[in-house]
Structures are given as C-alpha cells and as structure tokens.
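mind reviewing this stuff:

——
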Amino acid sequence: MSDDSFLREVEEELRSEKLKAFWRRYAPFIIGGAVLIVLLVAANEGWKWWQTTTANSASESYYAALDLAEDGDLDGAQVAFQQIAAEGPDGYGTLARFQIAGLLAEQGDAEAALAAYDELASTLDNPRLREVALVSAAYIAVDNADVAAVEMRVGGLTGEESTLRNQAREAIGLAHYRAEDYEAARTQFEAIAGDANASQDVQMRAYLYLEQLAALGTDGPDAAQAPGAQMGVDVFEELGDPLAGTEDAVEPEGSTDASQQ
C-alpha cells in the first residue's frame, strides 16, 4: 500500500469518527428542531381548520337563531344568541350581542335593551360599532327617557366626521319633538335635509318630520317641495329602519368566506 493510500484511509477514518461524534452530540437537537418545525406546521394547519370549522358552526347557529326570531320565537332566539355571544368567535359574538339588545327592545324591555346597547358601546374596540350601539340606544331612549338621555348618547355624533351623524340628529330631533320643543326638533331635521351625503331614507324621514312640524305651525322648508308631501305619506306611518345601511359595520371577519363554504 502506498503512502498516499494509507493517508487517505486515515483521513476517511478520522472524518467518519468526527461525523459519528458530531451526530452523537448534536442529533437530539437536530431531530428536536425537525420535530418542532413539523409541530408548528401541524399547529398552524390545525388552527386554520379550527377557525374555519368554528366560523362555519357559528354562522349556522347565528342564522338558525335569526330564523327563530323571524318565526316569532323570541325567547328561543334569545337563548340561542346568548349561547353564541358566550361561546362563538368574536365577530358572531358581537352580532349576537346586538341581536340580544334588539330582541329585548322588541319584547318591550326598554330598560334592559338600553343597558345592553350601553354595554356594547362601552366595551367594543371598533369605533363604528360603538356608534351603532349608541345610536341604537338613542332611538330606544326617545320613547323611554328624556332629551338629556338621548343627547348623552349621541350628542357627540352629530358632527360632519361621524358617518352616523344623521341618525344621531334624527334621534335628538325626535326626542325634542316628543318633548314638544319643536324649534329644537326642526333644527335637527333641517340639518339632515340639508346634508348632501344623507341617505335617501333618512332624508325622506326628515322631510316628513318637517312637514309634520309645518302642519303644527312651525316653519320649516317649503312643505310643498318636500318629497314626503308630494307622496302624501303620513309622518307616523312605517318609515323603515333608522339604522339602514349600517349592517356592514358589524359583519364578522370571515363570515363571507364561511357562508360560501
């Protein structure tokens, strides 16, 4: 055997021993790291599956509760929504809390409905949702509290920066109207009628209110030019949902995807 061959065998033997020593020393860490990566991937996929499954389940439960309410089983709907609020994901849990408050109002428990909306307004992080809760409470307070209670909730929402400013103005105007402070009511309704960005529904209601005030002898915009006057609609007829157009504010994250799966 030549010297070169002997040296190569020695080098290979040394490399082999070094590799074995390296593996004995670091194998647990290498294997552990590989296992950790697999576990992280599995946990991530499991979390995605859980979110999808939970969202699907919450969506089905939520719409089942809506069906109960629409069928007149308000007590059953309350129980279903309360379970979703307690156990469901945040999006549907928040929707359920709004439904609970609305059902309380529908069942005639104004005090409990006000408390439920006030709790939503004080605990939600989303500013738009807080505004929806405050405006909802204000509409209930119109018939169940005084002007101060309405203004306490939505007096700060009448500025141009608020997307629900006209709903806030409407609630305040109705509270003044109920208190027979017709001039203050007219001021709020005129602000709605003059808002170029007001929705058609709320602006129509404002014209109807102004028409009613004109009939009572309180000056306002020319009643003959008001859309409500031309249509012959009475102000006390069904005027639609004052919060129409605000539904997107409480759309749960992932609900669209869940409903399509």
Q: What stands out?
A: The mean pLDDT is 75.
